[in-house]
Automatic annotation (TrEMBL):
Organism for this UniProt entry: Candidatus Geothrix odensensis
Annotated InterPro entries: DUF3391 (IPR021812), HD/PDEase_dom (IPR003607), HD_domain (IPR006674), HD_GYP_dom (IPR037522), HDIG_dom (IPR006675)
Taxonomic lineage from the root: Bacteria, Pseudomonadati, Acidobacteriota, Holophagae, Holophagales
Domain HD-GYP: 142-338
Listed SMART domains: HDc
Domain of life assignment: Bacteria
CDD domains assigned: HDc (cd00077)
Any Pfam family hit: DUF3391
Protein name stated in the entry: HD-GYP domain-containing protein
Length: 402
């Protein structure tokens, strides 16, 4: 008996679905775990763009030779660690995380307010006004240049009733950081950031009872929700001050490399680079955010999911570059050091394996410690492993607030 990963084309009635392996995606299945009873269920998965899933061989039919979940995780961990041997793509932050946290908190609050007002204007039938949005992008950009970890870590804290607005701000910040890492020029960075801020404007044309439903969507509701990407293009096309980059991000962030995305089913290079970047960032933020229907993943687990979904869903080369931009130990990760102390990652260094951390807990003795920053770049300590915060009753984000 084991949990195994199988491709959709290997599924057969009688297998028991343990995990649909699409944690970022709203879908038309009412449950994540169920017994496959018909070929039509498999065809539905394929139609919704699922590539592979996890089955429970203790509750249904087996597939000899399929990799176990443990084997898959081992390969992904090795891939993630291999990314850490590469040089960081962003320079060391000139401002310490703790110093930038106050400004980052203010910028987040103001940005979410502006996005909320813009979205409400769209609901009322008004045109998108980039003149209102661009100052927000510039503020986010300035904060990211001072210390990207401060704003990105605080951006993971989202409220259910304002999730859409907060998600837009987080996607903007992640895209700005990604664009800097790729070496885009200043104006391209601003356009990509604006695209992130406006990427979900089409959701304002989706009925509130579907957009804010506290649970998974039915198949019919999911079809309506998927229309938001095409609606975003309609809202932005022809709007003064809106570039093609912004439009492509809004309309392409749900397209997939294998052609099974929406709204147009584009594949590979048919999807613009900004669109492929936005797909990665949109998934990462969705995975790491707490929602009504799933608890957010730890950043390290989300990075491994990006690696797992590379190729058929996401641009694998860009995923690798995104990981190098974010760090294999993203800010906010809980890690165990070689002396059995637990620490929260607070800043990236040029050496991705040796970030700046904040030591908070003695795992060997079982008690908390006064938070103390430690630069692993000049220390004889090193990171042994990621740790699951829930197992220690810790919330790493508590140690990143100002």
């Amino acid at each position: 008996m084991a949990i195994k990963r199988v491709r959709i084309d290997q599924l057969r009635p009688g297998m028991y679905i343990h995990d649909l392996n699409c944690g970022w995606l709203q879908h038309g299945f009412l449950r994540q775990q169920f017994l496959l009873k018909s070929q039509s269920q498999i065809e539905k998965m394929h139609h919704q763009g699922m590539h592979d899933v996890y089955i429970d061989t203790g509750k249904g039919a087996d597939l000899p030779g399929a990799p176990t979940e443990a084997e898959v995780q081992q390969v992904l961990q090795e891939q993630l660690e291999a990314s850490g041997t590469q040089k960081a793509m962003l320079p060391t932050a000139p401002v310490p995380q703790r110093a930038e946290a106050v400004a980052a908190q203010r910028i987040l609050g103001e940005a979410q307010g502006v996005v909320k007002d813009m979205m409400q204007d769209i609901r009322l039938g008004k045109q998108v006004d980039p003149a209102k949005a661009m100052p927000v992008v510039d503020e986010i950009n300035a904060s990211m240049l001072r210390n990207p970890g401060a704003l990105l870590s605080l951006g993971r804290i989202k409220q259910a009733d304002t999730y859409t607005f907060q998600h837009c701000v987080s996607v903007c910040a992640l895209l700005v950081s990604f664009a800097h890492a790729l070496g885009l020029d200043a104006e391209e960075v601003r356009e990509v950031g604006l695209g992130g801020l406006l990427h979900d404007v089409g959701k304002m044309k989706i009925p509130n009872e579907i957009l804010n439903k506290p649970g998974r969507l039915t198949q019919e509701e999911f079809a309506i929700m998927k229309s938001h990407a095409a609606l975003s293009r309609e809202l932005l096309q022809g709007t003064p001050g809106i570039s093609e980059t912004v439009i492509r991000i809004a309309s392409e962030h749900h397209e997939k490399m294998g052609g099974c995305g929406y709204p147009l089913g584009l594949r590979g290079d048919q999807i613009s680079q900004p669109g492929r970047m936005a797909a990665i960032v949109d998934v990462y933020d969705a995975l790491t955010s707490n929602r009504v229907y799933h608890k957010g993943m730890e950043p390290s687990d989300a990075l491994k999911k990006l690696l797992e979904w590379s190729g058929d869903h996401l641009d694998g080369e860009l995923v690798q570059l995104f990981i190098r931009a974010l760090g294999i130990y993203p800010v906010g990760s809980l890690v165990r050091l070689s002396d059995d102390k637990l620490a929260v990652v607070v800043e990236q260094q040029e050496d991705l394996l040796r970030p700046m951390v904040r030591v908070i807990y003695d795992a060997a003795r079982g008690y908390g410690l006064p938070p103390k920053d430690l630069n692993l770049l000049g220390s004889d300590q090193h990171i042994e492993s990621f740790e699951e915060p829930a197992e220690w009753g810790l919330d790493p984000l508590d140690y990143l607030r100002a």
